[in-house]
Design a protein that fits this description.
This protein has 349 residues and is of the alpha/beta class. It has helices spanning 13-16, 25-35, 40-47, 61-71, 90-94, 113-118, 191-199, and strands at residues 55-56, 76-82, 103-110, 131-136, 143-144, 158-162, 165-166, 178-182, 206-210, 232-236, 255-262, 288-293, 298-303, 309-315. The longest helix is centred in the N-terminal third of the chain and has 11 residues, at 25-35. The chain is elongated, with a radius of gyration of 25 Å.
């Protein structure tokens, strides 16, 4: 009777069973079992909510089996780690394999050898898969096998690859909206591969390429791949990697951000601009520019009808006495009209 009159037990059961979600993902996993030991009522209520038990890390075989049983038919989120401090257990993951068809999200973090053991285990169709993240050491750069998920990514919404390349078929990407590629050596990937990927993922809205763009193009000069749904394109690379823009028309309303770093006084910003190599011929006209200087970074921001073009240049010098040189050709675009360039030592535009 005392438990029945406790204020927390006056919360409707269908509301109470959602409360553990607000602990945060790590806290839910750590404390969920503890919550079931508070009283019989809480235990019955929480066990009856299958979605609470659908996040697996495979660090404990018995715990994994219990979670699989309590999750019933709920879509699964699996995170696998293999590094010095923590690692998933092979026998725990083996109990998940028969339930691969329920996989909704998969995150893999660790050393290169993690993929050698995992790939044969996840070569089955995953019709519910929405998100996938693979982050591994990239020396040597591993390759995802074509048998992964039976080569079918038709339900995937978000894909993030870091330190890994893939020969997966570029088909079946009709639902993909977010793509991130990081830390792939330029000689391991080509412009043609990227264009083939974009062509088969025509619903892409957000693209981020971090040090994963070749410095030269192997694609025909006239090949242009439209991205009608694009909202944001971010490229972290050296200026010469802007060659990718020769093949991508940036739609009106989208934003393009390019960031790079270099040593010395000579500014390579001009290499990004239409007055130099013509890399922006597929970008709407630039209408304004602002120059920002502070002790940490120095960059030029260019805005236009396309929704915004931001070029960031990070100077890396042993001392902060070298001057910032803005090439005069930057302000010679006849289509841009009048530029307004403002400087401030406090970092304001």
């Amino acid at each position: 009777m005392k438990n029945g009159f406790a204020p927390i037990n006056s919360i409707p059961s269908e509301v109470f069973s959602f409360i553990p979600w607000y602990l945060g993902e790590d806290d839910v996993d750590e404390n969920l079992t503890t919550l079931t030991h508070v009283c019989r009522g809480w235990r019955e209520l929480l066990i009856a909510r299958p979605s609470l038990w659908a996040r697996l890390d495979c660090k404990n075989a018995n715990k994994t089996r219990v979670y699989l049983e309590r999750s019933k038919l709920s879509p699964l989120g699996v995170s696998l780690y293999k590094d010095v401090d923590t690692t998933y257990l092979e026998d725990a993951f083996l109990s998940v394999v028969p339930h691969i068809s329920r996989l909704k999200s998969l995150s893999i973090f660790g050393r290169v050898d993690i993929l050698k053991n995992l790939t044969p285990r996840i070569s089955y169709p995953t019709p519910l898969l929405r998100e996938s993240m693979v982050t591994v050491d990239y020396n040597p750069t591993p390759v995802l096998e074509e048998t992964l998920f039976n080569g079918d990514l038709s339900s995937l919404r978000a894909l993030s690859l870091a330190g890994v390349i893939t020969h997966l078929p570029w088909e079946n990407l009709s639902e993909l909206t977010t793509f991130t590629l990081s830390r792939v050596p330029k000689y391991k990937i080509s412009i043609t591969q990227l264009l083939d990927f974009f062509e088969n993922a025509h619903r892409l809205k957000d693209i981020t390429l971090r040090h994963s763009v070749p410095t030269s193009s192997d694609a025909p000069p006239g090949r242009v791949v439209p991205l009608p749904c694009l909202k944001n394109l971010t490229i972290f690379a050296r200026p010469e990697c802007s060659v990718l823009l020769d093949h991508l028309p940036i739609p009106v309303g989208a934003s393009l951000i390019m960031e790079f770093e270099f040593h010395g006084e000579a500014s390579p910003l001009v290499d990004f601009l239409p007055t130099a190599l013509g890399n922006f011929k597929n970008v709407s006209s630039i209408t304004s520019a602002s120059l920002c200087l502070n002790e940490v970074e120095k960059y030029v921001r260019l805005d236009g009808p396309s929704g915004g073009l931001c070029v960031l240049g990070h100077w890396i010098d042993l001392d902060d006495t070298s001057p910032f040189l803005l090439d005069s050709r930057i302000v010679r675009n006849p289509e841009a009209g009048d530029y307004k360039i403002q400087t401030s030592s406090n970092g304001c535009n």
